[in-house]
Amino acid sequence: MQRPKTSFLFDLDGTLVDSVYQHVLSWREALETEGIDLSVWRIHRKIGMSGGLFANMLLRETGIEIDPERIVRLQRLHADAYKQWSADIRPLPGARELLAYLTDAEIPWAIATSSRMETARPVLESLGVDFDRTPIVTRDQVKYAKPDPDLFLAAAERLGVAIQTASVVGDSVWDMLAARRAPALGIGLLSGGYGQEELERAGAYRVYEDPADLLRHIDEVGGRR
Fold this sequence. Notes:
InterPro entries: HAD-like_sf, HAD-like_SPP, HAD-SF_hydro_IA, HAD_sf, PGP-like_dom2. Keywords: Hydrolase. This is HAD family hydrolase. By secondary structure, this protein is α/β, with parallel strands linked by helices. The chain has 2 domains: about 5-20 and about 90-220, Rossmann fold; about 20-85, Putative phosphatase, domain 2 (DNA polymerase, domain 1, Orthogonal Bundle), CATH 1.10.150.240. The chain is built from 10 helices and 6 strands. It has helices at about 20-35, 40-45, 50-60, 70-85, 95-105, 115-125, 150-160, 175-180, 195-200, 210-215; strands at about 5-10, 110, 135, 165-170, 185-190, 205-210. A 6-stranded parallel sheet has the order 3-2-1-4-5-6, with helices on both faces. α1 crosses α4 and α3 crosses α4 (about 70-85). The model has no long low-confidence stretch (mean pLDDT about 90).
């Protein structure tokens, strides 16, 4: 029997690039523009899910009536605010090295993000991603984003691998829930602000500090050359 090929499907924000808190502040600015007062910690707990679902949940928590036009407006305000932060976003420690290792080892990998390409492109460029060679799936390309599994299913299809043999690497509970529903193995990173127990409860079978820590333990998750 042929041994299943290992592959990795990466989330982007908080997993490969240090951008979670820029997203949080951008959402706060968008909400304040709409006259909605919400604590920063509440915003952070929703980072990682789709923008539409994120806005729905935030508005639901405030008791404000949900208006589709307002959701679209909030998403636009968030995107505009986030663009102002993009230049300051950097790859997380070991992110470039991890991707280079997988490429050199001929281990398939792809990126699947709840962001739209409009906001994802600048941080992908900071990561040094080759857009012509790297499968990238964004919110624009699927019907539903996380915690639905669509992004990771599409990424596995682009790679030509079975989702059951893939490992989803993410920093949020929404990544791990989407991985379970795919179903794929979930690897959690602490670099997005969620705790180890939270990630494990959501389905992570291994949790590491950041991409550098994952690279140091890559043999534990089937990433041997």
